[in-house]
Design brief:
- The chain is built from seven helices and nine strands, in the order βαβααββααβββαβαβ.
- The chain has 239 residues and is α/β, with parallel strands linked by helices.
- It has a single domain, classed as Rossmann fold.
- A hairpin with an 8-residue loop joins strand 6 and strand 7.
């Protein structure tokens, strides 16, 4: 499903409304809502909206468990930290239980951080995680989470979490693997801006090339895939 809105603000509002809706449905059906957040600039406004009335009051925060789809291996107080951004923008302003917030801790050692996060997930899920919602972005190069073009992680079939070593000049990362992302009940890509238009067109309407366009790997096996875009990002789509 592709939903296109007029501008980034409208996309952020629709994403926040989807978050609240899925949280309420999950708590009603299963007693808890397990979500994996994304980082970067795109979800910033969505998190602000969730921390404000009326969405703040409509969201079942005490029954929520918060995870992350990926993380840059920097301290949480580093402005590049996905968990740090979500904490400052959203989690510090809502009544989520601190014991239900599970950041990826990998600043000292990405490989150890990946092992530790997978071990944590195995304590929270009886089998492969089936998150109620995973939020994802899309990079101009077609990557999502920390699944980058030509990365060995793209072929991973067994591990739930993997370290990503993009090169000496780049930040080390930890990411959920495609196997876990594709087990989610709902995966929502949030894509805004003209600089994402070419990548969005390539991922949705171009030839399949998973190694060049990792976002094409994301197709939930039994869940729903939703794209929330603005007109600028969707500008090169045929439909």
């Amino acid at each position: 499903m592709i939903r296109t809105f007029s501008d980034p603000e409208a996309v952020s509002r629709a994403t926040a409304d989807l978050f609240v809706k899925l949280a309420r449905e999950a708590v009603s059906a299963r007693g808890r809502f397990q979500v994996a957040l994304s980082g970067g600039h795109t979800p910033f406004r969505t998190y602000q909206l969730l921390a404000e009335p009326p969405r703040r009051e409509r969201t079942p925060w005490p029954q929520m468990e918060v995870f992350w789809g990926d993380e840059r291996c920097v301290p949480m107080d580093d402005e590049r930290s996905n968990a740090g951004m979500a904490a400052r923008t959203l989690l510090a302003h809502v009544p989520v239980m601190s014991g239900n917030v599970h950041p990826i801790r990998c600043a000292g050692d990405p490989d150890a951080g990946a092992v530790d996060y997978e071990a944590l997930l195995r304590t929270r899920f009886p089998s492969i995680p089936n998150f109620d919602l995973i939020l994802l972005g899309l990079g101009p190069d077609g990557h999502t989470a920390s699944l980058f073009p030509e990365s060995p992680v793209l072929a991973e079939q067994k591990r739930w979490v993997a370290a990503v070593h993009p090169g000496e000049s780049d930040i080390q990362r930890v990411t959920l693997t495609p196997t876990v992302i594709n087990a989610a009940r709902v995966v929502a890509f949030v894509v805004t801006g003209r600089n994402k238009a070419r990548a969005l067109h390539a991922v949705l309407e171009g030839p399949l090339d998973h190694r060049r366009l990792p976002a094409q790997l994301i197709h939930p096996r039994r869940g729903r895939l939703i794209w929330l875009t603005d007109k600028a990002a969707a500008g090169e789509l045929a439909h």
